[in-house]
Amino acid sequence: MAETSTRRSPLAGHADRLAAATLRSAGALRIEEQPFRTHLDLRLDPSGPGAGAFAGVVGVALPVEPGTTAAGTGVEALWLGPDEWLLVGPPGTDGELAARVHAAVGDEPVSVVDVSAQHATLLLAGPRARDVLAHGCSIDLHPRVFGAGHCAQTMLARAPVVLVADGPDAIRVIVRSSFARYLADWLLDAATEHIAAGA
Fold first, then answer.
1. How would residue 197 be classed by pLDDT, with cut points 50, 70 and 90?
2. Parts of the chain belonging to CATH 3.30.70.1520
3. What's the whole-model pTM score?
4. Choosing a second label site near 49 at 20 to 30 A (CA), which of 29, 83, 148, 184?
């Protein structure tokens, strides 16, 4: 008999605690996991012909300005370096997205690595989201500086993360799976004053 396995998020054991903290914050803060997102690490020459064809085939243009993001049809591209991006898609689309990337670049040199299982994603939303993150992050998170369409590789509570600003009151935290439970515990602790105050 063939064995089957069920995929389990590294934050599966935190779901109830995150939901309870959100409820107790009375709208000031929402912390939730976005499980099993597709994450592909892409290395490609941004000046090559493949990059030019990329948007039409993959559905999103590759941002070339440092620390920016671009969103397309079900796909998001996060700038990580001059020739590196993190492609983010819905759960279970890793194979299809990688095939679209290869179709776009043809014979051009490219590296596409599926890092989906290596990452966990947490969303912090609400008027206190940036305050909580500021407890453990040294970059300026004010919406005037780090607004929608921006991303940053940085440290949060000594854990390496990618922060993605989805709006004035919403920031995604992409963290290595091995740090996910530690970071969720840290976020819950950092949010205590806002949860207790509900404001």
1. low
2. 38-116
3. 0.92
4. 148
